[in-house]
Design brief:
Elements lengths: L1 H25 L2 E5 L14 E6 L4 E3 L3 E5 L3 E5 L12 E6 L3 E7 L2 E6 L3 E6 L5 E6 L14 H5 L4 E4 L2 E6 L2 E6 L5 E6 L8 E2 L4 E3 L4 E3 L5 E2 L8 E3 L10 E3 L5 E3 L14 E6 L2 E5 L4 E5 L5 E6 L10 E7 L3 E7 L19 E5 L1
Antiparallel strand pairs: 1-6, 2-28, 3-4, 4-5, 5-6, 7-8, 8-9, 9-10, 11-12, 12-13, 13-14, 15-16, 16-17, 17-18, 19-20, 20-21, 22-23, 23-24, 24-25, 26-27, 27-28
């Protein structure tokens, strides 16, 4: 009898140990590492390729780069580093996944699959605030480079002092400064994900809303509405085009976007038009159309045979994801990306 009791006790102890180990290994966890090095200086470069990375950087404040993985965001610097450096700060969570990252000034806001929004100070890596969005979101869909997570996050946009989050047919605005919810509205049928303008509007396919209040806007004609000259995360767009082909610009007069034949418009940088030529040169044009710079997007003897994926244009920098010109469409395929260090960064 005592032997049976002893075996039972041993079995209970082993079970308890297994549960404890399983909880420590598989239970929810979060690790934040703050910056131990000074905030990177503003790199004084212009009109040249500065480096390559194997993951897509969200360039923040012109001084740091934020990368996203499945369960982690991390930052390095300076922006002109030739490759990925040791992380200055990082945030890792489990089992939640990163669904999107945006930045407003020096505040980096990450959205997670468990519904949390977490704001991080880009300079220090310290948490600024966190709130539950109350809106469903997807898991990580950034593939190998994370480009879609930092440059085109679904349902996550910025507009002035607000972060806009959509999901489940609803749209909410939160203050960048403290995470306070400004408003929540129910989106009309067919609205889908949208974009923000520098004029303080949010447009989806079928409707427009004021970012300050969530009020419906009725003076822009009918959709579908098309964004024009946007920053990453389809935010801060300079303009919008309605179904009748009428353009509305946030600034007056309308910007002159000079795009040479065969070139692709990448964006507007400090009032200058930035295009990618058919020969994979980066060309920067003044407001009058004069060529300010034209140089190949390559490091050393790299071939100029790639096609662009996603990209970011800031007032000082351009980063472009490069894909194999005739490669497979599947991002998980080995030959989908042009090189291992497929993202190229240039100062403009």
């Amino acid at each position: 009898m005592s032997r049976v009791l002893l075996r039972s006790l041993v079995a209970l102890v082993l079970t308890a140990v297994a549960v404890l180990v399983g909880w420590r290994v598989l239970g929810p966890a979060e690790v934040r590492a703050t910056a131990a090095t000074p905030y990177p200086e503003d790199a004084a470069r212009s009109f040249e390729v500065t480096g390559r990375t194997n993951v897509a950087p969200l360039i923040v404040d012109g001084r740091t780069r934020v990368f996203a993985g499945r369960r982690q965001i991390r930052a390095d610097g300076p922006v002109d580093a030739k490759s990925v450096n040791t992380a200055r700060w990082s945030l890792r969570r489990w089992p939640a996944q990163v669904s999107g990252v945006v930045a407003a000034g020096t505040t980096v806001v990450s959205r997670w699959s468990d519904g949390l929004l977490i704001a991080t100070d880009a300079r220090t890596g310290e948490e600024a605030w966190r709130v539950s969005s109350g809106l469903p979101s997807s898991g990580y869909d950034g593939h190998r480079t994370g480009a879609s997570t930092v440059w085109a996050p679904p349902g996550l946009h910025v507009a002035g002092e607000s972060v806009l989050v959509s999901g489940g047919g609803r749209l909410s605005a939160f203050l960048v400064s403290n995470g306070a919810r400004r408003w929540t509205i129910t989106l009309p049928a067919g609205c889908g994900d949208g974009f923000t303008t520098r004029g303080g509007q949010y447009f989806c396919a079928t409707a427009g809303f004021a970012v300050s209040s969530g009020a419906h806007l009725e003076s822009y004609g009918k959709g579908p509405f098309v964004p024009l000259a946007c920053d990453v995360a389809l935010s801060g767009c300079l303009g919008m085009r309605n179904a009748a082909g009428q353009d509305f610009w946030s600034g007056r007069p309308a910007p002159r976007l000079s795009v040479p034949a065969g070139a692709q418009l990448l964006g507007v940088s400090a009032g200058r038009t930035v295009v990618l030529t058919a020969g994979r040169h980066l060309r920067v044009l003044s407001a009058s159309g004069a060529v300010l710079a034209d140089f190949p997007l390559a490091v050393d003897r790299e071939r100029l045979t790639w096609k662009p994926g996603l990209w970011q244009v800031t007032d000082r920098w351009v980063a472009i994801e490069r894909r194999t010109a005739d490669g497979p469409a599947d991002p998980e395929a080995p030959e989908h990306y042009f090189t291992v260090d497929t993202v190229i960064i240039a100062a403009i």
